[in-house]
Please model this.
Amino acid sequence: MKKLLLGLIGAGIQRSLAPALQEEEARHHGLRIHYQLIDLDAAGVGVEALPGLVTAARIMGFDGFNVTYPCKQSVIPLLDSLSEEARAIGAVNTVVREGDRLVGHNTDGSGWSWGFRRALPKADLSRVVLLGAGGAGSACADAVLRLGAGELIIVDLEPARAAALAGRLNDHFASGRASAGVDAAAALQDATGVIQATPVGMAKLPGMPIPESLLRRDMWLSEIVYVPLETPLLKAARRIGCATVDGGHMNVGQGVRAFKLFTGFEADEARMDAHFRQLVARTSKETA
Model:
């Protein structure tokens, strides 16, 4: 039986379902995966510890690892090369060992698209607002433009970061479809849909990134946070009557692609999605 050593580097990740998803899917393919959580919060360190952790992963012979908040962009200079997708997005969430080299990939964008198309195949993409221009936001921005979004307005607490992302996207797609919006209320006024790609709503960062009053029944909302699966923003959108996509869709979608990168095998999408929902239901009962 082939054995693989994998992991996840990030902050506040003790409730991550990635270990269970990757290990169980591997079992169906006759593989054995040990998936280790490397939690910055649990260790009492910040992103400054990332260089040492990547070096340790090389020394310990990790076959690959995932990267999440707040390390998706900081990890880039520590790697040997990037996939075309990761370079275009400017963020990495999956690192694969190829010989003695560490290669960065990004499965967030394709994972978001996979889940979004399944949940809202007929969504109006004419004017989309993206909340958050970090690693995950960059991936979602790239993905929604690839799906044909007519206009993308990017709102971030750091306006310069939103402007930089809009510039990269317009250069890459040779269009002026992306722009930076300073004010969320103004950006959302005529929006057909919203992608929530900030860490706000996570178990470690509770709350809502925008007031409920800015939501409208005729817009859709795509949430990327999945711990908890029912974020305050998602609950508010559903109360109003918005069409919604929970963060589990993106999580499963990126996990499916990461499994292929790590193992070379195609994950069973339906099986992994069903397993994810079972784990969420079980966790909800245990914490109720």
Summary: Residues 64 and 96 are 4 Å apart (CA to CA). The chain is about 40% helix and 20% strand. The longest helix spans residues 269-287.
